[in-house]
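User: Could you write out the 3D structure of this protein bound to FE2/S2 (inorganic) cluster? I've included everything you need below.
Assistant: Certainly. Input first, then the structure.
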Amino acid sequence: MSDIPTDSVDQSRRTWVAITAGAGAIGGVAVAVPFISTFAPSERAKAAGSAVEADISALKPGEKLTLEWRGKPVWIVRRTPEQVAGLKKLDPQLADPDSKRNADATTPVYARNTGRSIKPEFLVAVGICPHLGCSPSDKLEAGAQPSLPDDWPGGFLCPCHGSTFDLAGRVYKNKPSPDNLEVPPHMFLSDTRLLIGEDKQA
Ligand code: FES
């Protein structure tokens, strides 16, 4: 099961994405906005095999962009300063706040930090639940909403068996998912371009 909006796929270029308005949205309602960008593999990415390049120049704080890498959805979330600041406070509620479980498979060394990221504002994560492979839904907005606690700080909810993840892809305690969401190998080519599937250590 996937939340990938197939109607926004540009099949000819294998480029597509959805931006979902996040915590910064007025009125507290997440809005899906089709967004076409330039995800054609670069020469460098082609040389690296299956790496894909993402233009994140249009991604605003509080928004999420999804692209495909090796047949899997990869999320890029641009967290707001408030969302970044709130991550550390969640540690006591999380099953593996420091990403120590199954770390070699789920969290590159450079992402073994609170935000699980290279730059604090940008989360890059595979959008597949480690429990049984469903794709969690965006619950980026903070606040009470169905199936979530009243003090929900924003994150993701797996609709299959209820695993919840924070905005760093860290799973909450006592949920079915055994691990945090996978952070794929990635690197910044510039302030506005990300390469997914390759990193400096690859
Ligand atoms: S597949 Fe996500 S909680 Fe079961």
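Residues 129, 131-134, 158, 160-163, 176-177 surround FE2/S2 (inorganic) cluster (CB under 6 Å).
User: Perfect, thank you.
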